[in-house]
Amino acid sequence: MTVLLADIRQTLFPVRGSRDGPLPPLLVMLTVVTGLVDAFSYLVLGHVFVANMTGNVVFLGFALAGAPGFSIGASSTALAAFVVGAFVGGRMGHRLGSNRGRLLGYATALQAVPVAGSVALAAISGGHVADGARYGLIVMLAVGMGIQNAAVRRLAVPELTTTVLTMTMTGIAADGALAGGPGAKAGRRLIAVAAMFLGALVGAVCVLHLRIELPLAIALVVLITVAVTATLGGRDQSWSTG
Hints:
The protein is an all-alpha fold.
């Protein structure tokens, strides 16, 4: 338990001079963003994700089989837009990858642009999102999440992918003491799961009981915070170069 708590503390409050600097808590914040935007997309835009592409591949299979409530167009659009965003994020990573702070700062700043557009479009749409607005929101959000995913992949901070939890949860179980494993990074993995859960919970509460654009507005604030913090922190060469 002491090791678990120490891992949680080091993830959320890394010591000065640590290898990844402030990246772990910033990536935890981006994991919350994933939960927020996927809660919005699934609950408001129909059975479609803008961050979880594994889900969209499955949904596309359902739609092709004729299952009710699933859309070939929505799932295909999300997948295509995500790939475009990942391409943009990949190009950025190759150009800025030598400075991890600047890469994260620029990537999240760029991601914030389509997210800001989605906030405005969702607010204008009100409680009813027409088909045109629906596809516009899918494209903007999926492009933004593609950028995030590519940048985070380039940063390669262990156990903090921000969008995928399958291997994270596998690691919690397979590497645990009961399975005979070392239990390494269990605290960080638990934080990642909790962060996405929190984002999804807050996003769902906002959509169901408050205003549909509120999860996106919260995500936008988080992205701006991460962008500013990463850009300023990237001046510290002890962790930002890689």
